[in-house]
Write a structure and sequence with these properties.
Blueprint: E1 6-9, H1 12-16, E2 24-29, H2 54-70, E3 71-81, H3 86-93, E4 99-106, E5 120-127, E6 141-143, H4 160-170, E7 176-179, H5 186-193, E8 197-202, H6 205-238
Helix pairs in contact: 2-3, 4-5, 5-6
Amino acid sequence: MVEVNKIQQGECVEIMKEIKDSSIDCIIIDPPYFLPATHYQTRKKQIRNFADLGILEFFFKNVFEEFKRILKPTGTIYIFCDGQSYPLFWFYLYPFVKNVRPLIWDKKTSINGYSWRHQHELIIFAEMPEAKPIPSGDGDILRFSAVKVDSRIHPAEKPLDLLKCLISKSTKEGDLILDCFAGSGSTLIACKELKRDFIGIELAKEYSEIANNRLDNSNKSEEVKQEAIQSEARHSSQA
């Protein structure tokens, strides 16, 4: 059985098989969403084709089969992706959700590139068939600065304030959130700070250790904070 509020180190599909049916309220993932075939580097005249993505497609087919099984009928999904991977993820989501739509993460500042420099990232938002409408009606362009490159623990690290925005939008305290590509654990930290339960899965041992250390440090910081609050309360009552 997969432990809640823990990070499991291993292959995500195999570990997800241990998660109960219809037990997850929300999935938030930032998968390795586009890995071009390495033989492109040696091609000259050959044309790229979708068959080159066969390994990637096979892997994500299994991932989404598990998503369908473990998500509650009221659940939601957020997937960070780009324009090239969006069609693949859309294809596997469409048969079992009631709607799929793109959110735009505007990073506010353009970075490397030419012609049109990179400034945004896509986030797929999908709702299961019984998901309740969210009344707030916020816009679908989310403006949050990216984590500065020199400050990143993981090369694809996402800002906590953006992750908290997604979590707050679609879940409530005590809900269970899955991140099966946990990286350095940013989504899990955001869950903890917002009082959501979580299951984290990360294949790379070094990053699962980093994520566990971040969670441990977060626990210690919370303990110190609570002690300070209690101390201040005691002093106030004695005054």
